[in-house]
Design brief:
Length: 125
């Protein structure tokens, strides 16, 4: 039934204008607006739906992961654009001063969009 379809994911935000500015200008992604919704156009040719939801509650998990070659460079660049990284000091997850978790798996740094949804950059070698 779905063999020849191109499914895509979506998530909600509480302010579409702020989301459009953040994803388009701050993160530098191609964003289009259709029917009062946004679409992120990502490198694979796929799209991700962003829709407004008045009673939006931020996701309690990472909704988007952006693979990068050099996490230090990516974190520095995003910081220069005003992105604030999350800092964790928990038993399982401890981030360094830049907000980068190093250890099991790829190095990863988490940040939030204006609606409070969690995103990440992660270093893939």
């Amino acid at each position: 039934m779905f063999t020849n379809t191109n499914p895509y994911s979506g998530f909600s935000v509480d302010d579409l204008q702020k989301a459009q500015k953040f994803y388009g200008q701050t993160l530098g992604l191609e964003v289009s607006k259709e029917h009062d919704m946004l679409f992120l156009h990502i490198a694979s040719g796929s799209k991700i739906l962003i829709y407004p939801k008045p009673n939006h509650t931020p996701a309690t998990y990472t909704i988007l992961n952006f693979p990068v070659d050099d996490i230090e460079k990516a974190v520095d660049e995003l910081r220069s654009r005003g992105v604030k990284f999350e800092h964790y000091d928990q038993k399982e997850i401890k981030t360094d001063a830049k907000g980068i978790f190093r250890g099991r798996g790829p190095s990863i740094a988490w940040f939030k969009d204006p609606a409070g949804n969690t995103l990440s950059v992660l270093e893939e070698k």
